[in-house]
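Appendix B, example 12.
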Amino acid sequence: MYDYLKGHLVSKQLNSYRGSHIVVDVNGIGYLVHTGKTTISRLNDEQEIKIYVSLSHKEDSMSLTGFLTKEERDIFNILQSVSGIGTKLALLILDEFSISELIDIMIREDAKELSRAKGVGSKVAQKIIIELKDKLVNWSNVTPVDVEDIKTKDVDQEALVEVQSVLISLGYSVNEAKDAIKAVLASKKDLSKTEDILKSSLEYLSKMV
């Protein structure tokens, strides 16, 4: 229903009975948007903002949760697709880890590192990794990356396909994913690991917004 809100930041609250949230004025309507402490720390008072939102609809209420980037919002939605992971826990995980760190954890299947997040025990961490890696790295629906025009002798083809798969799962098109991978491989000579290529590709795409 909603993709993003663009308006004036009216207020921000780190701790309240409603939880951490901000209020955004869009054409005279104030939207209360739940968000994480990391997002709030990146906002200045009384500024114009664009906040990517996710709508939660329960039996007795509706609420918005927002992030400064589309990638964070999409990862938030993916986290909630794991049974037992709600808004609060998904926000705590994203407060603890950046997008690239979280995806790196999924790729390495590092449940111990993931359990650093508040509220995530070892069993929950293992469950998240099992379910999310399958969602983030969907090999069967990905077109191989065409990088014939780039020297990639030090980069494994499977690593490139895996990176493209993750980017597509975050909502980028096949062409956007390919362009990002090609750009970062052409500009940086020391990229060989999947997580390094992915991190650089996400940084590249965030600048294109």
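The CA atoms of residues 142 and 165 lie 6 Å apart. Strands lie at 4-13, 21-26, 29-34, 48-57, 62-67.
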